[in-house]
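anyone else get weird line breaks when pasting these?? whatever heres mine. first is seq + tokens for prot A
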Amino acid sequence: MNFAEEQRKYLMQSWSVQGKYEPIPVEKTAGCWIHTEDGRRIFDLRSAHECINLGFNHPKVLQAMREQMEKVIYVTDDFATEPTAQLARTLAEITPGGSDKRTWFAQSGAAAVEAAIKAARFFKYNQMLKNGVKPNSEPHLYPYPYKIISRYRSYHGATSGAMSVSGDPRRWFQEPFGVSGVVFAPDAYCYRCPLGHTYPSCNIDCAEYIDQMIALEGGSNKVAAVIIEPIVGSNGIIPPPPEYLPMLRAICDKWDILLIADETMTGFGRTGKMFAIEHYDVVPDILVIGKSLGVYCPITAVVFNQKVAQSFEENLFGHGQSYSGHALASAAALAGINVLLEEGLIDLARENGEYLGSRLHALAAEHHSIGEVRGLGLFWTIELVKDRSTKEPIRKADEKYAHTMVSKIAEYLLQEKNIYIPADKFGIWIVPPLIVTREEIDFLVDSINDALEFVDAEMD
């Protein structure tokens, strides 16, 4: 039994029917490519679950990891290590807003989202007590503001709290046993406006709707935070209109509630800026970052602004996790940030993203199965439709794990073109490592063009 067969037999694959699990045996990885044992060379067009922005095996990151392994790999946060301290300081400096922030470290985006939700609720509780309001007194029928407003197309992770604030269909797997106090808002999805409007004459009513929701959910006496992905990820790579996030920031300020930005997928150069929210000149109160932060090590972070962090100077931060602040992962993260800055990869992502976007938009003129091309930087998707006039999607919300045309495209690209994309998205996923070359972009787009030929044929 080879290792692929062992993995198929003994490993439980995520989000999958186990009887259909057939992992491809890998010999090595390099750059944007996965080399298999049978001699294939496969382009990873999802950057290893969006975790490997720098591509595989970057020598500077590997060297930093080797050096750190000879010093200290992990101690609890009762002790200090140089890379953990430096990473916390670096994140305070490079994240939006002032540098007087504090960071808590986890190992997954979901765990970081859990911490962000709890911290927002703790903060509102501390604020209430500081203002002299007694728990259970009117109008505080619940002991403290606890509600979290999220959006239907969001995805924030698979743990109980993170999944509860996810509008993604995967939430359905844990219902009705989710965390209480979550209310979902419509999305800033101009192609399929949930309110039936047309941008820009809509006046960004999707943001105004959240203002009304907060009022109807009890205002700042009941609502703790709004959580968003600045650019929706798993559910369609949906950049909002430019006015949306500034309006949402103003709404949160009006009600004195926190804005949580989940940049697990969009951080560290993916969209052509260090963080996607910087495209909109908005500063969140709490920033969740992960995936590509640790490059090759699992580490994520929750960055609290000064206002939130200060509330825990005299009050307990009631959350924790083993391996928080892992020294080896912190060293990898620091090296990765240095590579992004020293090698100009964020600017490169923006420039190559514009080229990629122009090539993808050109496909829309050739294929009637393309409803919309969307993206920013090196974060793109092609939304596929059965009919452009009705916008009927090829994969509906309740068909995430059904074998649809999107699945067939993923199979075609893997088998015929040696390109790997996820098969469970709502369109064609185009998320290459930031080191992708123009030549590789041309190869990818030409291959997608071929895949769309048989999509058009099947839609006729």
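and prot B, same format (seq, then tokens)
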Amino acid sequence: MPELPEVETIARGVHERVRGDRIVQAWFGSHRQPFKTPPARQAKGLEGRAILAVHRAGKHIVCELGLAVSGLGAGGPDGAPQAQWIVHLGMTGRLLVTTPDGPIAPHTHARLSLASGRELRFVDPRRFGRLEFRDLRRSPGFSAAGADPLAVMAQAFAELFRGRRLAIKAALLNQKLLSGVGNIYADESLFRAGIRPHRRAGRLTRAELERLRLALREVLEHAIRLGGSSVSDYVDADGVRGFFQLEHRVYLRTGLPCRHCQTPIRRIVLAGRGTHYCPQCQR
């Protein structure tokens, strides 16, 4: 599943390419799984809208939309968004900016035709992704449930784990605590912080939690610079693979020597997820 760096990379790429454009026509496929909002209602709500901005919220991509008018870039009276199109990529989802004559991939569930002549397409072979339209005059805007790991400060980060009995790896994956962290970056940040994944979250010291917070931010920011990790189906808005998988120190390196101490990397199952760590470097 795409995690924070992959979603951030896609959101930035889409923003750069379609900001200020206008949705002329919206087409949706017949499979019902990807739709939190009925496709007919999505099409009606999207057509004519100006795309004001595209950004990430947790593991979701949020397209901020203006009024349904012919002028480009039209927000509300104060320039505020009037609606949102919310994309969750699920396990295998892709959000691509392409031309109308570009090959249509199998499992394409949405095609937004833009005034510029480009298309914004949502492709999802396994159909775990979700598409939602919100009219902000009638419902609140979307926001992630947990804290953003790129912005959370030391005190707030420590408070997230106070008294929690679950393993720190499981706590990092809890989207109600931190939004956007998944299996790859939990393993990688715990390695860099020198913390074993099965240690109880509430028993970590303040110093250990601060090491973890800084390691998590460093890993996420570095992964964003490299375009994310392509270990499965992930590609960016142009269909290009990321490169951070070449920098993984523990994730999917079971049995290989630790890049720091040469001890073989171990794999355990924790909270139902494959978990990778170095028994020497992590305590």
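btw re prot B: The beta strands are 23-28, 49-57, 60-68, 83-88, 94-98, 108-114, 119-123, 130-135, 266-270, 273-277. The longest strand covers residues 49-57.
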